[in-house]
Amino acid sequence: MSTTLLVVQILNGLQLGVLLFLIAAGLTLVFGVMDFINLAHGVQYMLGAYFAVAFYGLTGSFVAALLLALAAALVFGLLIEAVVVRRLYGRDHLDHVIATFGIILFLNSGVKYVWGAAPLSLPVPEALTGSVALAPGLLYPVWRLVIIGSGLAVALLLYVLVSHTRIGMLVRAGASNAEMVSALGVDIRRLFTIVFGFGAMLAGFAGIMIAPILSVEPGMGDTILILAFVVIVIGGIGSIRGAFVAALLIGLVDTLGRSFAVDVLRLVMSPSAARTVGPALASMLIYLLMAVVLWVRPSGLFPAKGR
């Protein structure tokens, strides 16, 4: 296990963590404020990537594609809220699951119809290509550092919005007791719309940022949605701070576990057994972490007040 490889994998874990945070932040607010289980949050991440590819093809500018894709992700999120989600407020969680699973099927088929089933790609901005030397012998892609930096910047912006603005105060109050907020005269439906649209835009931003690294293809949001749900369970429903800490923790545990599980197991078992057990154990680590956290703190690490 070399120090260079360890540093690279830590940075990769941070990159995964900030992407999970961008998705989980909106998901935990929707769940915490609206008490709505949105399985379609992953397809909003996918749509952000597809919108970026489409607008880059039209404009030839990554910045323009980023801004237009963010606007499109917001509008599409508001459209989903108005057409489908708004009709399900107050309904059973099973209705939420069934309806949003239907949205997943519809939109996965929709992107195949519009863009085809073949994977697409979004080029890295020319000014941000290449690698930077973090230490002698340690090169790391510039774009991955941009993802980490932008994710941390969004986390800081969310902290300011949620902790020091009136809309943030309403969001925090809604996460604790939405009925009381409504009784005090706040238009709770408008608050729900704002939260849902903002969450969709955050998920779309995550999709845009990862598009230059991963293939843009139908169903790309399904796997990361599972990780996002693990994040909000560990962090605490309705908590931005919990989502941030849990996302970074999961990103590091998952990345380091997949990279070094075999090497660590070789210390206590034979190499052949380590190669067999290591990958299976690595894929289970985040779920073992979730089980431990729930055993110690059933409400998550930083649950919203009132939960």
From TrEMBL:
It comes from the Bacteria. InterPro entries: ABC_transp_permease, BCAA_transport_permease. GO terms for cellular component: plasma membrane. The chain crosses the membrane at residues 6-29, 36-56, 62-85, 97-118, 138-162, 191-214, 226-252, 273-296. Keywords: Amino-acid transport, Cell membrane, Membrane, Transmembrane, Transmembrane helix, Transport. GO terms for molecular function: transmembrane transporter activity. GO terms for biological process: amino acid transport. Its main location: membrane. Coiled coil: none annotated. It is a multi-pass membrane protein. It is found in: Cell membrane. The keyword Cell membrane applies. Belongs to the binding-protein-dependent transport system permease family. LivHM subfamily. This is Branched-chain amino acid ABC transporter permease. The gene is livH_3.
